[in-house]
Amino acid sequence: xxDPWAVWVGERARQALHLPEFRRAAVLVGLTxxxxxxxxxxxxxxxxxxxxxxxxxxxxxxxxxxxxxxAALREAWEEVGLEPSDVEVLGELDDVFTPIGFHVTPVLAxxxxxxxxxxxxxxxxxxxxxxSELRAAPMTCDWRRLxxxxxxxxxxxxxxxxxxxxxxxxxxxDLLTQGPAAT
Length: 183
Hints:
The protein is α+β, with helices and mostly antiparallel strands. Helix content is 22%, strand content 33%. Strands 1, 4, 5, 6 and 7 form a five-stranded mixed sheet that branches. It has a three-stranded antiparallel sheet with strand order 3-2-8, with no helix packed on it. Strands 9-10-11 form a three-stranded antiparallel sheet.
């Protein structure tokens, strides 16, 4: 039987952005191989120069000569010790941007149910919420204006004592509202 997430990402029309003035980045959106998958998130360390204590996907800047998938796998290895050979890449999701100038491509992937992880100094904690928990969470949305006046939604998903928001919540929102079992 085909993986419903692989089918979904393969059948949808991916929305790419063209933002040459933005810095390219990639994140790994890892879902565990379980009937009710968990999503791999990190709690960023409090001593980092930016986004301290925020929830994020493993990821970061694309290095010169690197492809998007390579960058996502490298960053996941550097941040949480996830072996690239333990990752089944399913495809790229819609590009997103951040107000501080990053053009991010999320890479959807499958992971073992209990991935072996080793945290770097950038990561205070690994979070593995089930998609069903996030779907059931009382999501809220507020609107912000970009410098050019465009209104954009900012989603918030509470999970345990955490507030998942920003670019991470935007990608999760697409998964939760459009992906398999969303209907």
